[in-house]
Amino acid sequence: MKKILILIISLNIILADNNYEQKLYEKVLTSIFTNIPIRIYADNDTKEILKYSSKFKLVDHCDRDTLILVGKKFDNLDEVCKNKPIFATTYKGFKYMKNSFGAFYWRKGRPQIKFKKNMIDFYGLDLPESLRKYAK
Amino acid sequence: MLTRIFLSSLLAVNLFSSSEFDIDNLLQNIEKKTDLSEKTKLANSGVYTIYTRDDIDRMQIKSIKDILKLTYPIGYNENRYGIVDPLTMGSIHPFTSSQIKVYIDNQEITTALYGSGLSVISGLGVEWADHIEIYTQAPTYEYSSESTVTLIKLYTKSVIKDEGNKISLTKGSYGSSKLSFYRADEIDKWSYFVFGSKYDINRKEYSVGDGKVSRDSDLDMILATLKNGENNIFFTAISQKRDTFLDKSIDGTPTDAYMDGEYIHIGYDTKIDNFTYLISYNYMKYESYMQDDATPIQTAPYYGMFPLKSYVSINDSEVINNEFKYNIDTKEHKLLMGLKFKIKRYNYDTITINGVDIPIQENDQQTVLITFIEDQYLIKENSIITFGIQTSNINNNHSNQDDDLFMYRLGYTYTNNNLTLKTIGSHTQVALDPYLVNSKQFLAYPDEKYDTRDFDTILENIIYETNKDKQEFIVDYNIAKNYLTLNDKGKYITYDEDIIMKGINYKWTHYYNSYNKLYIDFGLREITNIPIIDKLITETIILRDLHSYNRFDFFNQILIYKDDYENQRFYDYSAGVQYHYSDDLTFSMKGLNILNKAKTTTYIVKDLDTQQPKEILEASAEDKFFMITMEYTF
Q: Which residues in chain A have Cβ-Cβ distances shorter than 8 Å to B21?
């Protein structure tokens, strides 16, 4: 009985949160990366969205233990980070950053999720069934 | 046992609700949240309608006309020059709807002579708009300027939602074509959006007498925004060449009638803490020409000046606008104070009637100083009282037509989860537009001071929303004092009776699901004490359905109008379909006034022989028109 009540309360707390963008990142990234909390190096705009999530550990500097990068542009990365997978937050970032394997961005006024099949394979990532339709 | 069943049921409901976090649902919620965030701030702003990005796309809204004709209580109409002018009385006045203001990204698009930029953007597209807000009847002073009855606010696209490039090509009826392009990107910390369009719009020609009158136009537009944090720069330049329909021709048969116009707006606005500042500059150059086959009467009292055989007017004008706003937010009060200062300068290079240069009136400048204060007082968590006062000091040089306007607005808003109740009372005053001041051409008594037109409105707006439905009921009562009407020479006199307008509107939006929806709007309006016809009762019904199936979006809309003067029912049926061939390529087709039964306007001219008014033309502002469009995003 107590377990059910706790579960209900937890679910209600989650549902009460209207931060859909944070939920989207959680849903997508935890489906691909299972080491939770996921160590992420993010740009400033994305940090604002992800910082309250318990699923992510945001780092100030990209290092060896950082799992992925999330943002629109990453210049001057250390050598150790230059080949890490990037989840882009703009169309241009998705198109032109060579390490980008997926993205969440707005295009034609609508939010979109996209994945690059070749980069998913390159990084040996396993895209769950629910996300495969967004891959090209 | 019962407790277990209850908890198990609750868990099941919660688990079911968590489908909200499916990826597709999350994407839909993110899109809707963006639209809703715009709506939230509007709760106390008056009666408003929002056309979201999704509405603009799927209704294929191509111009301001597409939404103005749906806007209560003004609708859409065009004047004798074929230019948008919903309040026109069919006279030769170039523009009579100055109380309808237009803003793009919080900057007013205006003109010195006519007090509104509505005529400037008439016919232009809105491919650059992310969403559009229409406020009717006494909008908050925060968003408006001078004397505003209806406010159209357009917001440009930005790099956040539209990064990249888009090209759009349209071919339409009568050989019309439209080409537009935009790009949204970032340079360092600045984001920019640039848009350019070239329109060649051909419309239905009408035979009048032995000739034809045309409303064709060539319109070019450049628009650009530059943003960095709270710093916004907005620029637009518009060039227009229009055939001016009946123009000033006394019998409505000009042999040649056209105008060329150029318009530039540049503005900068910023916000530092509680302080908002805006500066903008508007410039317009306007040249109009008309030739007619009339023979001027050389004897007294006309001396060759009547009727018009030729008319040339060349003028340029500018508006410099400064705005300061300061807001103080406390737990219970949201106080906004503002100061606006406008200088309007205008210069007539030439006015030639029947080949004779007309002396130019001396007044060439109007200054407007506006102060306002508005407070939103939170009585309880869900009850707000809004109170605002606005004063305007209007000075015209070389004229006794100076006005001190005093306007106020009192509103009460109650909201709970599903219900919003708004009561708004307002008093608005409107002074003469600069082109009318001391004008011998347009005023019956150019040397006398004209009183301000006063509009008093009280309305109740009730909105009830559930997941699947939104119902809205508006009842309003309006009194217009000192309305300008026409004498037998077509010049403005002040009407000595109060015009009373009463109206009700019921609007129902039914959401079949996240995207598909049905919209019904029924409006009934009675206007009494109108000059000449005394009383008018109008009925409007709008039915609209938006549906998407796979890669197709369908749009169907009918606007039904009837008034007891014409005693005829008009049907303006529009429909469209879009096919999304891929994420980047879309083909669309749209038809306007497909049944060719849209509301018409009766144009009245004078018989050259008898000097008596005669009806010469029934023309609709909405032609039967079809277009196909290809859009490519890259």
A: 23, 27
Tokens, residue B58: 């799927």
Strand A38-42, strand A56-58: pairing: parallel
Whole-angstrom CA distances from B559 to B69, B137, B139, B570 are 9, 22, 25, 8
Q: Is B229 helix (H, G, I), strand (E, B) or coil?
A: coil
Domain housing A25:
19-132
Q: What are the pLDDT digits (tens) for B283-309?
A: 999 999 999 988 898 998 888 888 899
CA triplet B219, B224, B227: central angle to 5 degrees? Answer: 160
In whole angstroms, what is the distance from residue B554 CA to residue B545 CA?
Answer: 8
Tens digit of each residue's pLDDT (9 = 90 or more) over B559-571: 999 999 888 999 9
Q: Identify the CA nearest to B404 among candidates B371, B364, B439.
A: B371
Side chain identity, residue B551: R
Two tokens, residue B533? 């016809």
Q: Do B26 and A27 touch (CB under 8 A)?
A: yes
Interface of B with A (CB under 8 A): 3-4, 7-8, 10-11, 14-15, 17-18, 20-23, 26-27, 29-31, 33, 53-54, 57, 130, 157, 160-164, 166, 185, 583, 633
Using a 10 angstrom Cβ sphere, with 0-12 exposed, 13-18 middle and 19 or more buried, the burial of residue A75 is: exposed
Nearest by CB: B53 against A24, A109, A112:
A109
Q: Which one, of B408, B380, B381, lies nearest residue B392 by Cα?
A: B408
Count CB neighbours of B538 within 10 A: 19
Q: Residue B48 domain-assigned?
A: yes
| CATH number of residue B307's parent domain | 2.40.170.20
* Residue B323 within a domain: yes
The ipTM of this complex is 0.80
CA distance B485 to B491: 8
B120 assigned to some structural domain = yes
- Residue B32 confidence (pLDDT) above 90: no
C-alpha distance from residue B262 to each of B103, B127, B198, B514 (Å): 18, 20, 14, 43
- The SS3 assignment for B496 reads coil
How many structural domains is chain A composed of? 1
Does residue B16 form part of some domain?
Answer: no
DSSP string spanning B342-386? EEEEEEEEEEEETTEEPPPPS--EEEEEEEEEEEEEEEETTEEEE
Among residues B126, B197, B201, the alpha carbon closest in space to that of B627 is found at B201
